[in-house]
Each structure stands twice: as structure tokens, then as C-alpha cells.
Design a protein that fits this description.
heterotrimer; A alpha/beta (about 180); B alpha+beta (about 210); C alpha+beta (about 450); A: about 180 residues; alpha/beta; 7 helices; 4 strands; C: about 450 residues; three-stranded antiparallel beta sheet; globular
């Protein structure tokens, strides 16, 4: 539609944002951050036995956080592990994304006690929350695909600054969960 | 007095569950001879090898096919050495701590399950100490595997093992305050937030006795 | 507020200078260390590391490539499961306990449920079909756990293909778990008194086919690694621990059997009817990583033998109950596939709502309050793939555990790391830890 039809065939037009998003999402390298049971499901996804993320180019789990873009926090984060988690996140270079895999990473899961951080979003900013205990490998792949879409739509430059401002304003004015009425209204 | 069966009133008869979580474990007395199975052999061998048997062993309990020797903490290392060398209990399966806040002067208990591979037997040692003076001699010299177990029991209950090569916290962060698995330490859960309401953490919910 | 720069190459602490190596800066690091005139370097193989099975922190003191001291830092996965269980029913405890040693969930559940059954005094009342199903599930779990151990162990030592083969076999077993219990991992399938639900229709032929397929597939890994000269050089003579060291450290499982002692709880202190099965206890006498590797490979075949015998027994016990008969303990497990997943079968609902008031009361009381367990304490041990998994359960006569402590084999086995690795080279630590096969969920609980 538009200019692409009128120009002689052989030209593909796109925006810098879309190009950057396309490149980034197709070469996402995860950092190894497997903690507990979800890590085993993550290994099942990464080991190419039946569920295989090398179809996305992601089977290389980088050990060094400098070479990784994506941190899949797989498993329960204890209070002793939280500073380590934050340090690894800080050592990753931008752009970086976080998937909270499993119920324990998203919200503390079934362990509502003194030892577990109730959701890694207390420690790092999370892009995708993936429920499950543990989530099936297909669920993890679905989360990665959703993250791919999110990365593809990310803005750059002034657009990015504007989006950040808008999101922050919306978050400041949002109704806290405890005041939402839901089905109790 | 043990509880059995589900039904029938207990205590005040309040079944609404709003009494809160109150724990009262029953006290057990000493078992009488003959103990049955290989327990008599063990008791006899121990008495023969350790003349101060009656001073060191406070109580012998045989319950559900398992023998428990309640040992005084001063004699613990001696009894352990004799059990290991003469009675061939080569392996200690670790230290488990229990906290009975209502047993005054015997609140903290350390339980040592022992295994004899030569004779294929299991027994258990129990040491009770008061909260105010929670010291137990360390058994790392007798069974080296107790090293981390004693650190864990210290971390979780606050029992100090005298003679341990390096008694530090092992499961909690090094600067944690408090000993989590004691009964007077809160579970530490937070109320779970839903739209318009919260669910209390499991320690604050109503309970049925 | 002090700013912490995550990219800083070094920072001063009370313990001295801490260097952060982030790649491509080896010469800068060597220069800085050279200027401090220190011969020995303390290296932190931190909790986040591809080669340490989970969140294990290894603190190494190195002299060149030789390791002079190695200490393990554990506790990075401490979940407080034991304290959490003091606030839940006996039956709800199964879901907690299953997540401790997450590679062998069935073993955790079995140790816990056997301990409760001992306290209740119903060990002999558990139906035979339930015991046979428990044995079969345990052996399937042993296969899947050994597959992870072999796969990740080989991966860490540089062999990548065995990991594919191992996880392929593991997927076969996980499919069976999903068919039987509904979940791939952390099933909460074994309940006090029996199992959660009976095998679905057509399960036994499927399991037989899977056993045949696994027997064929195990040859792939065997032919790749056994006798492979590189593998032998990496694993023979590494991680030596003899019988005296193993007994004083309280080590059980393949590490103990690699010293030559045939100590297997399934044979010497049988539970769940293990005395009725024919299988061998695999030992090795080399006390090294290669011996433990061979033990794990051969235990797979023994597990397949046990599963086949269990299937034969199950075919004879068709239609038998899978839960203890005492209705005051038996969790109402007449489940059927409903439109929203799984729910109580209509027959059961018809019975409790229509015909039997007693069933309704039992169902209500069991689900809301739970059953009471008489006061006392027991210690029940099972043979998990890593060693002796013991459950020490203290009850005060109520519906919740008073104290629940698990004696995890990995907790003791990891203490052997120092004995196995000091004096060797860094790469051998990886092999030694892989041969111990620790699961940090069990170590930290």
C-alpha cells in the first residue's frame, strides 16, 4: 500500500525503528539465570530435544551478562540471591529485557514467607510475566514470542523518550490494585 | 494423651477456627523393657560399653518401630564416640532441630538420626537444651558430615555448637537477624493483593486444630 | 548514596581488592594483580554460573591452575519450605515437598508420605496397587533425574551431544508423567495413604512402548561416552573419595557406591514392596568420576527392569483401589476429566450429595480441615537418585506438621567437594561437582 506499489519492484521501505526492532528480536541471546525447577523446563526448551528455541536463534545461553540481551529469571529468588540478581542485571548492557518465568519469579508463587522475594519486579524491571509452576516449554516459547512482538514495536530516539513519559504518567495516575473494584463492586 | 480421629470437641470446643494457630505437642514418657527387635541389643551393648549409661541417657523411647535415646548434652560426645566405634553406627544422617516453646528449660532439641551399615540398624539421639543456654557440644569430630548440618541448625534455631570449626549462617544471608524456624519467628508472608481485597498470608489465616 | 558502578574493573572492600572480570580485559587484570604482589588469588565462581548445578557458589583459592582450597557457599535458593509446611495441612504438604529436590519430585513425596503413614500406623494398609504405582513412578523419576545428571555433567565437561540425547530420553519420561499425573514436573502425585488417582486407560501399553524405546535410546549415550578416550581422560582419577571419607561425611548414593560398597536402601531397608522386585545394586570400585558415571548409566537399565516388573504386577491388580481404605484419611480422589479441566467425577458427586451423608462429611472435613496424625516423630528414608533422602516428621496430634525436616542427600554430598577437588585443577572441580550431582533446591530447601 502506498509508495511500495508505485516504486519499481526491488525496493523495500521501512522505518529505522522497525529495522532495529527486527534485528534485535531475531538475535536475542538469553543469559543463564536458571535458579530452580523452572530452570529445568528452560533447559528442556534450550536443549533442542523436543521444544527448541534455536529456531529463534536463541539456543546460545551466554554465561557472561555482557553478551546477553535477555535475562529469563527462572525460579524462586531468595533474599540471599536478590543482590546477585541485581548485579547481573546491571552488568548486562542495554538494550536488555527480562522475562519473569514461573509463578515464583512473577509474584513469589506459593512461597509467601521470609525467604523469598515476592516477585522479581521488586528487584529488576520485568517485561513479560509468565505464570505456571513450572510453565510448560510451549508456554515459555509463547512468552518469548510475545516479547519478540514487544521488542519489534519499541520506539527509538525522541519517540522513545515520549513513550517513556507517557507510560510513567499513566503509571502515576493509575488506580492501585487495592482500590480497583473488579467483581466485588 | 494423644489425639486420634477427626471428630469430637477438643479444648474449648470452639470449631470456628478463630482461636488462632496454637501448638501443644504431647509429652512422651520413657518406654519399658523389653523394647523389641534389635533395640534391646543396642541398649545392652551401650550399657556394657558405657558404664555411665544411666547418668548420660535421660530417657529411652521406643515408638512406631524407632528407638530414641535422650542424651544429656555434657555426655553427648562420649556417647557418640561409643556408638560410632563400639556399636558401629558409622553414619550420622545429620542434625535436625525442633523448637518446643512450651517445654520450659527444654525448648530446643537437636535430633541426630544414626545409621549402622554393618548391622543395618537405625537409632536416634535427642539432646534438649534450654533457650537461655542453647549450647550443645559439636559432633564434627565424630562425624565430619555434621559440619553443615550444625551450621544449619544454628542458622535456623540459634543452637550454638561448641567446638564447631566455623559456625556461621549457611542458608540465610550472613547478616540476617533472627533464627527463622523457631516458633516465635513469624512466617513473614505478605497479604496477597487482589482487586479490592487482600488474602492474609498462611500464618494469619484461621486454622482448625 | 554510594553509587555502585557495575562496569568497574575493581573496587576496594574491607577484605581487599575485588576484581570484576567482564571479558576482553585479561591483560589489565593481570597487571593489577601483579602490582598487588599477591601470589594467591581467591576466585569466586559465583552463584550465577553455567557450570555449577544451580545456584552454587564456589570460593576457590588458586595458585596458578591448581586449586589449594575450595569452599561451597550455599543458601541462595533457601525457600523456607520446612517452615511453610507448618502452616499447611498434611496433604497440602505434598505440593511443597515436591519442589525441594525438583529433579526427583516423586522421591520427596514418597519419603514424606511414607513418614506420615508410619505416624498414622497405616503402612500395611496402603493398597498394593498404590505401592506398585509408587515404585513405578519412582523408577521413572530415577531415569529422568539420571538423564539430567548425565546430560548436564557431559555438557559441563565439554560434550554437547550427550545433552541432546539425555533430554530426549527425559522428554519420553516426562510425557509418561503427564499422562499419568497431569504434570511434567512437581506432580504432587503421591498422597498420604496412596496415590492421587489411578493410571488412565491405555497407560500400561504406552509405558511398555516407552520402556522399549528408552532401552534402544540409551545405547546412543553409552556408545558416545563409555570408552571414549577424551571422556576417560577427563573423568578417570578425578574427584577421588574413598570409603572412609564417604562414611564420615555421611555420603550416600552413587558416590558411596562408587567406593565399592553396595549400600542401596531399596535392598537393605526396603519400602513400598521393593523386596519383591529383582534388580541389581550397581557399584564401581574406582572411587572417581568415571565410576559414578558408569553407576548412573547402569542404574538406568536396572530401573527399566523394575518398571517392567511393576507393569506386570499392575496388569494383575487391575481395578484394585489406589488409596487407603480408611475414609477418614483417604483424600477423595475420584477424579474425572471435566469441561474445565479436572474435577470430581459425577458418580462421586452423586454419592456424596445423594446417597451417603458420611461420604459428604468425610469429603468436607478432609478438604477443609485435613486428617489428624497422632503425636510422635519418625524418620523415614528412601533411596533417591542422589542418595538417602530422609524425612524427619514431628507431629503434635494436629492437622499440620509440627516440624518437618528433610535430610537431603545433596546437602551432605556437597561437603565432599573440598575433599575431592583440593590439589587438582579448576576444570576438575567441575567434573567432581557434576559427579556429585547436587540439586540446589534440595540443599537449600
Amino acid at each position: 500500500m502506498g509508495l511500495e506499489e508505485k516504486i519499481p519492484s526491488g525496493f523495500l521501505l521501512t522505518t529505522v525503528e522497525k529495522l532495529a526492532g527486527y534485528m534485535r528480536k531475531n538475535s536475542l541471546w538469553p543469559a543463564t539465570f536458571g535458579l530452580a525447577c523452572c530452570a529445568i523446563e528452560m533447559m528442556a526448551v534450550g536443549s533442542a530435544a523436543k521444544y527448541d528455541i534455536s529456531r529463534f536463534g536463541m539456543e546460545v545461553f551466554r554465561a557472561s551478562p555482557r553478551q546477553a540481551d535477555l535475562m529469563i529469571v527462572a525460579g524462586r529468588v531468595s533474599n540471599k540471591m536478590a543482590p546477585v540478581l541485581r548485579q547481573i542485571y546491571d552488568q548486562m548492557s542495554a538494550p536488555k529485557w527480562v522475562i519473569a518465568m514461573g509463578a515464583c519469579a512473577s509474584s513469589g508463587g506459593m512461597f509467601n514467607n521470609y525467604a523469598i522475594v515476592q516477585g522479581v519486579d521488586h528487584v529488576v524491571p520485568v517485561d513479560i510475566y509468565l505464570p505456571g509452576c513450572p510453565p510448560r516449554p510451549e508456554m515459555l516459547m509463547d512468552a518469548i514470542l510475545k516479547l519478540h512482538e514487544k521488542i519489534y514495536d519499541e520506539k527509538l530516539g525522541t519517540n522513545r523518550a515520549q513513550i517513556i513519559k507517557e507510560v510513567e504518567l499513566a503509571a502515576m495516575n493509575a488506580k492501585p490494585t487495592i482500590q480497583m473494584k473488579g467483581l466485588l463492586a | 494423651m494423644t489425639d486420634s480421629g477427626m471428630f469430637g470437641a477438643r479444648g474449648t470446643g470452639d470449631t470456628s477456627g478463630y482461636g488462632g494457630l496454637v501448638r501443644t505437642p504431647a509429652a512422651t514418657g520413657s518406654s519399658q523393657r523389653p523394647y523389641g527387635g534389635y533395640f534391646d541389643e543396642i541398649a545392652d551393648d551401650l550399657e556394657r560399653a558405657y558404664p555411665e549409661f544411666s547418668l548420660a541417657i535421660e530417657r529411652v523411647v521406643v515408638d512406631r518401630g524407632e528407638l530414641t535415646l535422650h542424651v544429656k548434652r555434657e555426655k553427648l560426645v562420649e556417647v557418640a564416640m561409643i556408638l560410632r566405634d563400639t556399636l558401629k553406627f558409622e553414619m550420622c544422617m545429620g542434625v535436625s532441630g525442633v523448637h518446643y516453646p512450651q517445654n520450659t528449660d527444654r525448648e530446643l532439641v537437636a535430633v541426630y538420626p544414626l545409621l549402622s551399615m554393618t548391622n543395618n540398624r537405625r537409632i536416634r539421639l535427642e539432646v534438649s537444651v534450654p533457650d537461655s543456654d542453647a549450647h550443645i557440644p559439636s559432633l564434627v569430630e565424630v562425624w565430619a558430615g555434621n559440619n553443615w548440618h550444625e551450621r544449619e541448625t544454628f542458622d535456623m534455631f540459634g543452637i550454638i555448637f561448641d567446638g564447631h570449626p566455623g559456625l556461621t549462617r549457611i542458608l540465610m544471608p550472613d547478616d540476617w537477624a533472627g533464627h527463622p524456624q523457631r516458633k516465635d519467628y513469624a512466617l513473614g508472608g505478605i497479604p496477597v493483593e487482589y482487586k479490592g481485597a487482600t488474602t492474609p498470608p498462611p500464618s494469619d489465616r484461621r486454622s482448625y486444630k | 548514596m554510594t553509587t555502585f558502578d557495575p562496569y568497574a574493573p575493581s573496587r576496594e572492600t574491607t577484605e581487599g581488592t575485588v576484581f570484576s572480570v567482564t571479558g576482553g580485559d585479561w591483560d589489565a587484570l593481570v597487571q593489577e594483580i601483579g602490582s598487588t604482589k599477591e601470589e594467591r588469588v581467591v576466585v569466586n565462581m559465583g552463584p550465577q554460573h553455567p557450570s555449577t548445578h544451580g545456584v552454587l557458589r564456589l570460593i576457590l583459592e588458586l595458585e596458578g591452575e591448581t586449586v589449594t582450597e575450595v569452599r561451597c557457599g550455599v543458601g541462595y535458593l533457601h525457600t523456607g519450605i520446612e517452615k511453610n509446611m507448618e502452616f499447611r495441612n498434611w496433604t497440602q504438604g505434598t505440593t511443597f515437598v515436591t519442589r525441594m529436590d525438583y529433579l526427583g519430585p516423586i522421591f520427596n513425596e514418597t519419603a514424606y508420605c511414607l513418614a506420615i503413614e508410619k505416624l498414622l500406623g497405616i503402612t500395611n494398609d496402603v493398597p498394593e496397587r498404590a505401592s506398585v504405582i509408587r515404585v513405578m513412578m519412582m523408577e521413572l523419576n530415577r531415569i529422568s533425574s539420571h538423564m539430567v545428571a548425565l546430560g548436564t555433567g557431559a555438557l559441563e565437561l565439554g560434550a554437547i551431544t550427550p545433552m541432546f540425547f539425555a533430554f530426549r530420553e527425559r522428554e519420553i519420561v516426562l510425557d509418561l508423567f503427564e499422562m499419568i499425573s497431569g504434570l511434567r514436573m512437581n506432580m504432587a502425585y503421591i498422597r498420604p495413604g496412596g496415590v492421587q488417582q489411578d493410571l488412565p486407560e491405555g497407560a500400561i501399553p504406552k509405558i511398555r512402548d516407552a520402556v522399549k524405546l528408552m532401552r534402544k535410546n540409551f545405547k546412543d549415550n553409552t556408545s558416545l561416552l563409555v570408552g571414549n578416550s577424551i571422556w576417560l581422560k577427563r573423568t578417570q582419577g578425578i574427584g577421588y573419595l574413598d570409603l572412609a571419607g564417604a562414611t564420615t561425611l555421611g555420603i550416600t548414593g552413587p558416590v558411596l557406591r562408587s567406593t565399592g560398597l553396595p549400600w542401596d536402601l531399596r535392598k537393605v531397608q526396603p519400602y513400598c514392596g521393593y523386596e519383591n522386585y529383582n534388580f541389581d545394586v550397581i557399584t564401581a570400585d574406582t572411587c572417581d568420576v568415571y565410576g559414578r558415571f558408569l553407576i548412573r548409566m547402569n542404574e538406568l537399565e536396572q530401573s527399566l527392569r523394575i518398571i517392567e516388573q511393576a507393569l506386570d504386577k499392575l496388569e494383575l491388580l487391575e481395578g484394585a483401589p489406589v488409596m487407603v481404605a480408611d475414609k477418614k484419611i483417604a483424600w477423595p480422589a475420584q477424579l474425572a476429566l471435566g469441561s474445565d479441566g479436572l474435577g470430581n467425577s459425577l458418580n462421586h458427586i452423586r454419592e456424596i450429595m445423594g446417597t451417603s451423608m458420611e461420604s459428604l462429611i468425610h469429603h468436607f472435613k478432609l478438604v477443609t480441615e485435613g486428617f489428624h496424625v497422632p503425636a510422635g516423630q519418625v524418620y523415614q528414608a528412601v533411596e533417591s537418585p542422589r542418595g538417602e533422602l530422609g524425612a524427619h516428621v514431628v507431629s503434635d496430634g494436629g492437622t499440620r506438621p509440627y516440624r518437618m525436616h528433610f535430610r537431603e542427600p545433596s546437602f551432605n554430598n556437597l561437603q565432599a567437594t573440598s575433599a575431592m577437588s583440593e590439589g587438582g585443577m579448576i576444570a576438575d572441580i567441575i567434573g567432581a561437582v557434576a559427579s556429585i550431582d547436587p540439586v540446589m533446591g534440595g540443599v537449600d530447601r
